[in-house]
Each structure stands twice: as structure tokens, then as C-alpha cells.
Amino acid sequence: MSDKTATTLPFRSLRADSGGQPRAAAARKQISRGQRRHRAIILSGLLVLVLPLVLITLYLFVVADDQYASTTGFVVRQSDKNTGSPLDFLGGLGGLTNASSADSNILHEFIQSQRMVELVDQALDLHAMYSRPGFDPVFAFDPGGSIEALQRYWTRMVRTHFDSATGLLELRVLAFTPEDATRIAEEIVSQSSIKINQLSAIARDDATRYAREDLEKTVATLKTARQAMTEFRSRNRIVDPKADIQVQMGLISTMQTQLAESMIELDMLKLATRTDDPRIQQVEQRVKVIQNRIDAERGKIGVTSADGSEAFSEILADFERLTVDQQFAEQAYVTALATYDGALAEANRQSRYLATYIEPTHAETSEYPRRLTIIALSALFLGLAWAIGSLVLYSVWDRR
């Protein structure tokens, strides 16, 4: 080995020894930083995942009260008596398809509305029912809450499922006692039935409105016609001019018969006796009287009498006009009445009603709140949040 080589080896060895210490220090520093990261992740896991899960579990099993569910189901049906379905032989299920989808949609929205909450609250005092637990700020309702807050709480406790294809509506009602849940479900069914009856009454009124208006007009016209006939009879003191004319014509016919007999008798006397026979004068006088009476009676029928009173022809014309008006009003009334009865029958035939196919049930065991489900979902979301946060922190640490 040369002297040059001998002199350089210690120098290289010295440089190697002097560079190893910084690398070891850096390694120790990196190990220490990694340990701090692990401790921070573990600590964050305890704070973000474990501690909230423990608190949620304690709250669910210690603080939260049991909730009981009552289930009911109903459908809006139409009482159409003239139509039938072959499916009716399968237990009447085919009739369920006759329900109006629009009415079912209206009912579905009405159950979730503030008006329904007000009606049920007035009947059952929902504030007291839903604030029954002593301390439960999560699942119980604040007894001093407003109607808007109660309506939002109502949407949590009353869940509806509507099948637009069949029109079936199913409800799940929650309460803190089985009795309260059943009572609320029954009240919902009752108020829904009232609403459907109101809708049916409105539809029936709309369907019969025009027929009823026509009927009222014809009734007024018939009353006017009958009143005019009554005034005519009171004014002329005649019940039926046609009957009086028939009597008058019978009287004229009788007098004409008597006139003919008298004229025959007069001719016989003229042929058998002298012209100055007093009997001839008597018969001539009788013929003259009968002829005058016939003329007078005919004058009553056809022309205005001497005293200025109406002749029978004018009275009969007025009577016939009033009779035609009355007959027309009666026929119009009969037609309008038949039309109204038909519209009313059709409206009643198509009236809607609420058919409850699941009566409100009475719970025996508590199924809500679903504690294990809530804990599992909480663990899932908290775990995802903790994992995402840890990845973000690792990314930030690695960039330093």
C-alpha cells in the first residue's frame, strides 16, 4: 500500500463516522414523529368514534323511552254499483282498483298536513302525549313547542306509505304508550274518513248543481202558472170554462128542441084552426121567447154581452192559454225532476268512501327506537368520518 493510500483511508473513515450520527438522529426523529401520529390517530379515534358511540349507546338504553307502533291501512273506494270485476270472486280485491288516485293523493298529503295535526291535537292533546317522557330531548317533544314544531315532529312519528298503482295507504304511528299509538291511528282514520266524505259531498254537489238549478227554475215557473190559473178562476168565478160551455151548449140544444116542437105545433094549429085562434098567438109568443133565449145564450158564448162583461169565447181563450202554460210548466218540471233524480243517483253511485282494510293495531312490545340499528349506523358514519379525517391528517403530515 502506498503512502498516499494510507493517508486517505483514515480520512474517509472519519467522514463516514461523522455522517452516521446525523442519519441516526433523523431516523430517531422520524420514529418519534410516527409514534406521535399513531397516538394522535388513536386519540382521535377515541374522541371521534369510541366516545360518541358510548354516549349514543348510553342515551339509547338509559335515557330514551320505548316507543310503540300502531299500524293501519285504508283505501279510497268508489261505490259504483253498476260495474263489477271478475276479480271480485277472489275476495273483492278487484274493487280496490276503483279508488280515485287523485283522492288518495289528497288524503296522503292531508295526513302530513298541519291541519291534520291540529285536528288530532284538539281531539287527543298531542302535546301531552308526545312530551310524556320526563327527559328525552332527542325523541320527545317539547310541551311548549309551536304547532309548526309539532307538525315537523308529527312527520317523524307518523309515516305513510302510498302505493299509486293500487291506491293503498298504510300508516305507522309511533307513541310512547301502546294506547296512545292506537288512539292516534284511530283518530287519523276518523279524520281521513271525514275528509273523504267532504270531498264526496263537494263532488256530488258539483255534479247535481246545474240539474238542481234547472229544477228550481221549473218549480218557480210552475208556481207562476198555477198562480195565474188561480187568479183567473177567482176573477171569472169559473172553475172550468169548458165544462160551463158544455152546459151552455146543452141548454141551447134543449131550447132548440123545444123551439122545433113549438114551431111544429104552430104549423099544426095553422092548418087545423082559424088564423085568429088564441092558441096560435100563444104558440107564436112561445116560439119568439125561445128564439130570443137561444140568441141570448149564443151571444154569451160568441160575442160580448150588452153589459160589457167578457164573452165565453174570450174567457175560454184565456183559459186555454193558461192551461197550455201550466201543462208546459208541469212537463218541464217533470223533465227537470227526472234529470235531477238521475244526476243525484249518478252522483250517489259514484260517491267515495274510506275502506279500512287494516284496523289500527295495538302493540304489545316496543320496537322503537331501533337501538341496534341506530348504533350500527352511527358506528358506520363515525368510522367513515374518522377514517377520512385520518387520511387527510396523514396527507398533511406527509407534506411537511
Describe the secondary structure blueprint for this structure:
Elements (H helix, E strand, L loop, with lengths): L2 H61 L4 E11 L22 H11 L2 H11 L1 H5 L16 H11 E6 L4 E8 L2 H59 L4 H32 L5 H25 L9 H38 L2 E7 L12 H29 L1
Antiparallel strand pairs: 1-3, 1-4, 2-3
Q: What does the model show?
A:
- The protein is of the alpha+beta class.
- Among the domains are: 22-64 and 369-400; 68-207 and 357-363, Bacterial polysaccharide co-polymerase-like (2-Layer Sandwich), CATH 3.30.1890.
- It is built from ten helices and four strands.
- A four-stranded antiparallel beta sheet has the order 2-3-1-4.
- A hairpin with a 4-residue loop joins strand 2 (158-163) and strand 3 (168-175).
- Helix 1 packs antiparallel against helix 10 (371-399), helix 6 (178-236) packs antiparallel against helix 9 (312-349) and helix 7 (241-272) runs antiparallel to helix 8.
- The radius of gyration is 53 Å and the shape is rod-shaped.
- The protein starts with a helix and ends with a helix.
- The model is unreliable at 1-18, 82-99 and 303-309 (pLDDT under 50).
Question: In short, what is this structure?
Answer:
The chain is an alpha+beta fold and 400 residues long. It has ten helices and four strands, in the order H-E-H-H-H-H-E-E-H-H-H-H-E-H. Among the domains are: 75 residues; 147 residues, Bacterial polysaccharide co-polymerase-like.
Query: Based on the structure given, which CATH architecture of the domain at 68-207 and 357-363 is correct?
Result: 2-Layer Sandwich
Q: Describe the sheet with the most strands.
A: 4 strands, antiparallel
What general outline do the C-alpha atoms trace? rod-shaped
Strand content: 5-15%
Poorly predicted tracts of residues = 1-18, 82-99, 303-309
